[in-house]
Amino acid sequence: MLDPTQLAALAAVHRRGSFDLAARDLHVTPSAISQRIKALEEATGALLIRRGQPCLATATGLRLIRHHDEMALLERTLAQDLPGLAPGPATLRIAVNADSLATWVIPALAATTGFLYDLVIDDQDVSQDWLRRGEVAAAITAHPGPLQGCDTIPLGSLRYRATASPAYVARWFPDGVTPMALSLAPALTFSDKDRLQTDWVAQTLGMQRFAFLTHRIASSQAFVDACLAGLAWGMNPEPLVAPHLASGALVTLGPDAPLDVALHWQFTRLAAPALRPVTDAIRAAARAILVPT
User: Fold this and answer.
1) Cα gap 134→18, rounded to integer Å
2) Inter-CA distances, 124 with 108, 143, 152, 219, 279, Å
3) What is the per-residue pLDDT for 85?
4) Which residues lie below 8 Å from residue 153, measured CB to CB, with a gap of 6+?
5) Quick check: 90 and 100 in contact, CB under 8 A?
6) Do domains 1-66 and 158-260 have the same CATH topology?
7) pTM confidence score
8) What pLDDT is attached to residue 87?
9) Element (H or E) spanning 42, and its range?
């Protein structure tokens, strides 16, 4: 039988990146964290944490962390049938893309109780990888699966618009959105994983290879602000820019050609009963904002 306090220490070290921060979270000393990790490694006969900056779990360590998370969610489900247990809120780790978080996910999380959320922010094209590694219990992802041990629910599509300020369009696209103009006009990129700009150009102009100048800004709201200020053009979620398009503060580039990104709610099958309230809230919030696929 694995010691729950040792598993909690393992999860905390991996997620916080150090023994000191893990000790702070669990209200014990760093020495106690070290002793728990050592005891767990001895019990399993495997290296569980690679010491460094940051400290990271090995593949075996990740499997034990997933077990720890699943047991915590199962205990929450049991407490619903046996209120006398009163285990307290369960920490639920979810991978979610920044644009969904900025537009529709927060109301869904606020509609549920009994959870403490630990959100991993990553691109929808790679969020499934967090679930595959066992680092999260659920993910909002662009990949429908299948993924072993997981269920997938289609949510709809988040619609994006290629937008810029009228002054920016007049300066950089006086003759329309041409390949030459696009190669010179500064764009916005969230990160190296962000493919929305190239996907939109491929869809709209048929250019499969697109070299462009770009600012890198890892913030959904800053994307909108940068477009409003005339810094660049960018792919913005329609829910964030609809008021600015209606007022004329922003305009779309070229033809009215939105880019729809299909999203899915993917979660471990073992945790499904405990996640049901969150799943219901996610589906309801998605119906209110996303475009039906």
Assistant:
1) 20
2) 18, 8, 14, 15, 18
3) 57
4) 264, 265, 266, 279, 283
5) no
6) no
7) 0.85
8) 60
9) helix 30-44
Task: Give residue limits of the domains in the chain.
Answer: 1-66, 158-260
Rounded to whole angstroms, what are the CA distances from 12 to 176, 180, 253? 53, 50, 46
Beta strands in 201-282 (DSSP E): 214-216, 234-237, 251-252, 259-268
Helix axes 4-16, 59-81, angle to 10 degrees: 120
Dihedral angle computed from the Cα positions of residues 276, 124, 258 and 284, in that order, rounded to the nearest 10 degrees: 10
C-alpha to C-alpha distance for 200 and 12, rounded to whole angstroms: 40
How are beta strands 138-141 and 90-96 bridged, if at all?
Answer: parallel
* Residues of the chain under the 70 pLDDT cut: 77-88
Phi–psi pair at 216, nearest 5 degrees? -110, 115
Number of Cβ within 10 Å of residue 22's Cβ equals 27
Give the whole-angstrom CA distance, residue 293 versus residue 264.
11
Retrieve residue 63's tokens: 């499997």
pLDDT digits (tens, 9 = 90+) for 209-252: 778 999 999 999 999 999 999 999 999 999 999 999 999 999 99
Q: Which fold has domain 158-260?
A: D-Maltodextrin-Binding Protein; domain 2 (3.40.190)
Which architecture does CATH list for 1-66? Orthogonal Bundle (1.10)
Residue 76's alpha-carbon distances to 4, 69, 72, 110, 113, in angstroms, are 15, 11, 6, 18, 11
